[in-house]
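Hello Y.,

Per our agreement to keep a running log of every chain we model this quarter, I'm adding this entry. I've kept the format consistent with earlier entries: sequence first, then predicted structure.
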Amino acid sequence: MRTIIKHLLLMSLLLVGIAIYFLKTDKGHLTLGVLIEDYLSTHTYNKIKVLSFNLENYPYIVLELQLNETANIILKGELSSYHIDMNYHLRGEELHFNDFHLKERIDVNGTLFGAFSSLKITGEGEVFEGDVKYSLTSVPHSIKEMNIEMRRVNIKKMSIFLEEKSVLNGLANIDAHFGFFSKYAKEGQAEIYMQSASFSHIKENLPFILNATIDFQGVEYLYRADMDADIGRIVFRNGYYHDGKQIATGEYKLYLKDIADVKKLLNHSYQGAFETSGTVTYDTRSKLMEVRGKTGQFGGELSYLYKDEYLDMRLKKVSLKRILEQLSYPLLFVSKIDGRIQFNIKDKRVFINTDLKDTHFVRSKLTDIIYEKTSIDILTEVYDKSSFAGGYQNSILSSTLKIDNGKNHIYLTDTTLNVANSELSSKFEIKIEGEELLGKIYGTIDEVKVWIDKERFIEYQADKYLSDWFRTAR
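Predicted structure for the entry above:
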């Protein structure tokens, strides 16, 4: 019996000695710190370094760790094998931990409380150059009851962190509430507000107010957004994104108060209001966007499809007059347009193939010159068998215009227009009420000059006069 008591006493003294060594001596703290480093690094698959460790007031401890040679975290409080009640301070110029890679400064304070299987975490501080406040419950493989408030955070830096294409610039306020959050599914809502946002790929400063809401329903996200600016408004509704398919869809409406406000963006002088609506689809895997829409802005119907830097426009009874007025181009004739216009945006090429209905000329310098030189009045006819075909490349528009009604016609062939300097060159052929005229048009859009083939014209007039004379003489 004495032997057993003796061994128990020695065992107790040994355990007390070990405890005193680890709890009360610097060398013991250092040894225990090495053990903690190895344990945490092995079980978290990260490089964890113990910078300091104080157990003098155990169970109250002070522990400072370095995470993957980036941020440091100081933990102060009580810790056991099944429960934690501690304050923390996390700070660093970067933070890398498992799949969490933040290449921005972070400085947050908070609390850790509860069992490790259901750990409640709160915190507040600075991230993405703004303020953040959060609370959540961490359970195995997911998060519950997570609330996040962000104020004036840099949206571009946040997008980079989320590995999303940076579309917007500016400071954002974000309020997010999730009942459930994991890598594979989410249940909750996020609201985003920006007082002065701008598009990162547009050089001109066109700030707008952004209000957006995203509803997370498992692997499906529903979104809506309003963008209001001095120049107009864009509204997105019925937005849908599937995390598995990684394809976003939605409906949009665009209203511009005056297209003249975006002159610097489009390198041309436009004017007047503009309104259109349609659908948009974006494949996040292939990075391809498809935009469909239509507008009655120009009378009739103009529908369009944008996909992979290619724009295909279909026109049905569209008013040429309304188009040219909004594009600030001079009006030579009016018409209803049916046809197709195709834009290869990447190669900056345009192909045009249209039919023109109810076409008639309006008075212009061109019609005055023709009347002055020939006494032919081209303003009196209506032409329903007309067409326009052309192409644009390297700032040159080449075209053929045939205005015809089966009896009379006006053809402009071999036409070239240098968009860069407005130089114009074209051959013309006119036949109206038996009068025929050939010649050329040249100069600029603002200063049109006309050359008439007088030999052909005089020859024609002589033949006509002699024919009329012999017919009268009979």
